[in-house]
Design a protein that fits this description.
Elements (H helix, E strand, L loop, with lengths): L2 E2 L2 E2 H29 L2 H27 L6 H13 L5 H16 L1 H111 L1
Antiparallel strand pairs: 1-2
């Protein structure tokens, strides 16, 4: 047969099926019945089983890595789960009363202190990382707003420079035309003044001539 983690595929699948059906689902239904009937003995019995099963599952993670090459490893796991569940052997209650309960009762204070410290540390780390997350989010928002304002100011500057350049190009012909038209208007004004002066001088000279002719006639 094909060797897989130190055991055959059939034994491995049988072990998983046994743990799923007889080690998890059946004890869960029996615990439901104990809670529903409010039988203290059954309730304590299945509570002891779940404690032992939790320890077994934790140890199984390590043993599956380092001890899976042993012969009959999965068969031993199946036999152990059956021994825990059997009402004749009462393996879970035996393990709990002889080993688990004395160990936990002797180290209960240390475990409680460790758990309280872990809760405090976890709360502090959660608050610390939460503050860091808020700071990072705030800085990101500020940077985004600053970048948006910079882009907007650059666009406004480009628009203003374009407008100024267009205004300058529009004003240049007007200024040149005004510069060219101003001397022409000045020339017209000087010519009109000279004409007026010449006409007044001519009219004055004519009047004086007429007066002299009239005097000569009288004489």
């Amino acid at each position: 047969p094909l060797i897989f983690f130190g055991g055959t595929d059939s034994c491995r699948l049988c072990s998983v099926f046994n743990r799923l059906i007889f080690g998890t689902l059946y004890p869960a239904y029996s615990s439901y019945k104990a809670v529903k009937s409010k039988d203290v003995r059954e309730y304590v019995k299945w509570m002891m089983y779940w404690i032992i099963f939790a320890l077994f599952t934790t140890a199984e993670v390590i043993t599956d890595i380092f001890l899976c090459w042993l012969p009959f490893y999965y068969e031993l796991k199946i036999a152990f789960v059956v021994w825990l569940l059997s009402p004749y052997t009462k393996g879970s209650s035996v393990l709990y009363r002889k080993f688990v309960h004395p160990t936990l009762s002797s180290k209960e204070k240390d475990i409680d202190e460790y758990l309280s410290q872990a809760k405090d540390k976890s709360y502090d780390t959660l608050v610390h990382f939460g503050r860091k997350g808020l700071n990072v989010a705030a800085t990101a928002a500020v940077m985004a707003a600053a970048k948006g304002q910079g882009v907007l100011s650059d666009r406004l500057r480009s628009f203003s420079m374009q407008d100024l350049s267009s205004f300058q190009t529009e004003d240049e012909p007007k200024s040149t035309s005004s510069i060219t038209t101003q001397p022409a208007s000045g020339q017209h004004r000087t010519r009109a003044v000279m004409r007026n002066k010449s006409e007044t001088g001519y009219s004055k000279g004519k009047c004086t001539r007429q007066r002299e002719q009239q005097k000569n006639i009288n004489l």
